[in-house]
Design the sequence.
């Protein structure tokens, strides 16, 4: 079971001072949070993508590449990377490059995004959002697995004899989680490829995502990847912790009730009706255990801990309490409750072992450029393309 934190670089006025952090400070604070998560032994740090104020998370590859050098063991991820408005060629190359810098400590959560104005900024139409997500990922899947790609679709220019560089580290692409708020087609695609499915699990009623998770599990089994209970599921969440429950509510209340999205909402009501966890370490543990009871065994739990106006010193306190008093208990409890045979979340090491066993992983070496193109597109000395897969129609 993996535990960690995720965020989207949002900025909101401090409820005590009315002041808003600068973008420079918010970026620096996010780096501090990620480094603390690594030092305290959490498993995952995920940084999302937004292109509109009040967010600074416009370039996850830049952030994750920097963090690859600043951290030692934590898995770096996205929450999310936009598979719709980003070109899949750019995604393939950016994140393969970061994967090399991170020495494999990278996976990817992909989503389509629901902020309507962003689509035309990148030459897209939100009405095509689902179709873009499906087509772009089908191409990305091939770009990471085939050295030479010929491809034609509806939403970008065709590719002929194209090679995305660098090739994935050890010939093994980053593991992909598909994230969606209300889209069964995305759950279908995740199941088809045997990829993970991540429900953001915030800003919605308790177990709002259960029908989509159940659907994904059923389709995962349908496509022959294992039992439904073996499907790779991740859940988000949000937490605020103090040693005494009332202290947690008192401290978090101004940050929650003055946040623009939640004005007019009572903290206690929201915490009762949604996955938001507020209280003592034991209360956070107890609520998180209800997620496993409702969704079944799952492999990744991430919390938003530094949202909006929460000062970095408060966020760092929260991460320490999470890592030292909540996560160790959850590791034991969830492991004890897990059904036999349910797999862990894939990592680069496990994917390399599954592919090569005791053999040496692939290290891609481009062919020398001799100027002779008569042999056709063979850009690597150790070409090892996988057979392409064709994504079926939804529900097929």
Sequence:
């Amino acid at each position: 079971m993996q535990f960690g934190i995720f965020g989207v670089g949002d900025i909101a006025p401090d409820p005590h001072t009315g002041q808003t952090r600068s973008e420079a400070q918010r970026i620096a604070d996010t780096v501090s949070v990620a480094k603390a998560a690594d030092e305290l032994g959490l498993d995952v740090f995920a940084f999302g993508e937004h292109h509109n104020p009040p967010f600074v998370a416009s370039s996850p590859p830049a952030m994750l590449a920097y963090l690859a050098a600043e951290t030692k063991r934590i898995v770096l991820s996205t929450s999310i990377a936009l598979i719709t408005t980003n070109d899949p060629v750019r995604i393939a190359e950016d994140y393969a490059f970061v994967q090399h810098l991170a020495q494999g400590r990278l996976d990817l959560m992909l989503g389509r995004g629901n902020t309507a104005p962003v689509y035309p900024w990148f030459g897209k139409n939100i009405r095509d959002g689902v179709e873009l997500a499906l087509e772009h990922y089908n191409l990305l899947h091939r770009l990471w697995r085939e050295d030479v790609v010929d491809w034609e679709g509806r939403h970008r220019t065709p590719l002929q004899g194209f090679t995305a560089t660098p090739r994935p580290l050890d010939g093994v692409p980053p593991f992909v989680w598909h994230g969606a708020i209300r889209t069964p087609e995305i759950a279908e695609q995740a199941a088809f490829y045997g990829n993970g499915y991540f429900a953001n699990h915030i800003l919605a009623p308790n177990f709002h995502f259960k029908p989509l998770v159940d659907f994904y599990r059923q389709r995962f089994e349908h496509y022959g990847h294992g039992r439904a209970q073996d499907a790779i599921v991740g859940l988000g969440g949000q937490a605020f912790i103090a040693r005494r429950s009332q202290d947690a509510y008192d401290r978090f209340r101004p940050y929650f009730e003055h946040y623009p999205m939640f004005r007019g909402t009572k903290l206690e009501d929201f915490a009762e009706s949604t996955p938001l966890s507020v209280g003592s370490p034991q209360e956070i543990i107890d609520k998180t255990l209800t997620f496993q009871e409702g969704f079944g065994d799952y492999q990744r739990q991430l919390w938003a801990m530094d949202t909006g106006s929460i000062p970095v010193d408060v966020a760092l306190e929260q991460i320490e309490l999470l890592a030292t008093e909540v996560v160790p208990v959850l590791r034991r409890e969830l492991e004890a409750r897990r059904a036999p045979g349910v797999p862990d979340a894939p990592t680069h090491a496990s994917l390399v072992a599954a592919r090569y066993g005791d053999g040496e992983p692939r290290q891609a070496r481009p062919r020398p450029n001799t100027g002779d193109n008569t042999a056709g597109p063979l850009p690597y000395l150790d070409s090892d393309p996988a057979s392409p897969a064709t994504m079926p129609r939804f529900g097929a």
